[in-house]
Amino acid sequence: MGSKKKTFSEACERNKAPILEVLSKYTKDKLDLLEIGSGNGQHACFFAENLPNIYWHTSDRRENHSEIQAWIKEKKLSNLKYPLEFEIGKDAFPKQSFDIVFTANTFHIMSWKKVKTLMRLLDKGLKKKNVSVLIYGPFNYHGKFTSESNENFDKLLKSRDPSSGIRSFEDVSSNMLKNNFFLLEDIEMPANNRLLVFSR
User: Fold this and answer.
1) What is the pLDDT of residues 90-144, one digit of tens each?
2) All residues at 6 or more sequence positions from 3 whose CB lies less than 8 Å from its CB, including other chains
3) CATH superfamily of 10-145+161-199
4) Are 46 and 23 in contact (CB under 8 A)?
């Protein structure tokens, strides 16, 4: 596998501190955390460095692994794990046992079909009964955008891929409930984003 130069995400830099504040609340103990859709690995490095009691397992499509590895190699953190291959709709759920799942800015990138597939995989693939799932990103409420910027962002997403787009909070919550996860918190975050916390 060829090496790849790591890139820097301004969005990750802006939202990392508010997300860490919520993650800290749910990661008091020594836990194994699975991040779904680690992107360039920037979030994973920051969170693993600031949550030393957490074993942070990255995952993403194979094509993104080299960039995630570039970030991990630079940080050299013992609690930060190299990426697992996990593409929704293609790969089986990772076999390890996890206590918590975190995913950021993935639901609006995937098709709604893949989002529902992921929710089913969470229920079937997570071995432990008491598991929290934290989902970060923009959501619509009562069929409406929460801001003009989110509406414009949705148009941009759909221009690139008609199957993508900002998801309905009500649809996500009801489908998570169908898959045995109930909503614990719906937390307002900067830049018209939310962090939804579910538990089983």
Assistant:
1) 999 999 999 999 999 999 999 999 999 999 999 999 999 999 999 999 999 999 9
2) 66, 69, 70
3) Vaccinia Virus protein VP39 (3.40.50.150)
4) no
